[in-house]
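ok here's LTD domain-containing protein, seq below lol
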Amino acid sequence: MSEVTLLELEIYRKMIECEEKRWGHREVTRVQESFSQITKHRTYEGDIRIKDCDENGEHVIVENAGVIEHRLSGYRLTRSVGGIERSFTFPSLFVLYPGQTVEISSRGHQSRHAHNHHFVLEHEGNWGVSSHVVTHLYNANGKEVASYEVKTI
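and the structure came out like this:
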C-alpha cells in the first residue's frame, strides 16, 4: 500500500475511534497481512535438469531438455531440510527420452500434470519444507549435475 493510502486509513481509524468514544463503546479489530516472495534458481550441466520443485514439498520434476536419450540408472535426487536428508534413486534401466519429464512425488500426492513417468518417494510424507531449500541431482558417479533452490522471503 502507498503511504497516502496508509495515512488515509489511519485518519479514518482515528475518526471512527472518536465517534466510538462519543457513543460510549469501542471495538477495534486489527488485521495484519503478510506477503511472501518465492524465488527459484536452478543450475545444471548438460541435458538433464530439475525442471521444478514444489515449495510445499509435494514433488520434484526432472526433464531431459536435450535431443538424445539419457539413462538415469543410479541418478540420485537429494534434499536436506532441518538436518534430515530425503533422497530418491532412479531404478536401473530407467531411460528419459528427449523432451520427457519424470515426476517424483511425495507419498499420497496426486499429480496435477501429465508427465511421461511418475515415481513416488515411498519412505517420506513429503520432500521437506523450509524457507530455504536446495534440491540436488547427482549422476551415478556422484557428480552433481543439477540443483534447484527455492527461497521464501
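fwiw The radius of gyration is 24 Å. kinda neat tbh
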